[in-house]
Amino acid sequence: MIRVALVDDEAMIRVGLRMVLSGEDDIEVVGEAADGDEAAGLVERLRPDVVLMDVRMARMDGLTAARRICAEYPDSKVVILTTFDEDEHVAAALRAGVSGFLLKVAPPEQLVEAVRTVAAGKGLLDPAVTLRVIAAFAGQEPPVPPGPALDQLTPREREVLRLLAEGLTNAEIAARMYLGEATVKTHLSRILMKLGLKTRVQAVVYAYRTGLAGN
Fold this sequence. Notes:
The chain has helices at residues 11-22, 36-46, 62-72, 87-96, 108-119, 130-140, 147-151, 155-165, 170-177, 181-195, 200-209; strands at residues 2-7, 27-33, 50-54, 77-82, 100-103, 124-125. The longest helix has 15 residues, at 181-195. It has eleven helices and six strands. It has a six-stranded parallel sheet, sandwiched between helices. By secondary structure, the chain is an alpha/beta fold. The termini are far apart.
């Protein structure tokens, strides 16, 4: 059972999220909070698997809460609920170490799939914001010299990382490289380990910042 916490200052939004998620046999909504401060306390008490977090809230905003949760309770994965006009918030959330981003206008089935994806330890970006946001974020940050970390990757791992940064799924990478999907997953795990990263999202940003992608 995937245990989910909902954090949004609008009660109707929380009601809608709960209705969608509670209809799934493998998902349980274990708590709700109306601001970031409440969210941090909720996570401390309940340790949910996934936290769906709004950005703009009173008292403590979602980004501040996300930084705290990611740092103190890394087993609780944070998914930021965002809108098209909040690119700067998405960039800040990337720095905080969140596991995913989802547009508030996403259809119910996409919300459910997002929860399952993040609970499984994978990063997630809404397709509508993926490359635009990552490229913008990477461009705001000072370039990172390829250096020894990237040099640890084998040629095949570098190609997997480059294709990941292009927005390809595991299945698409497998087809492009004539590999099994399980092999691609193994490569991605080794890439994260060698680069000292936690999520696919961070790996994509790293690829842009080192010039492996986006050129």
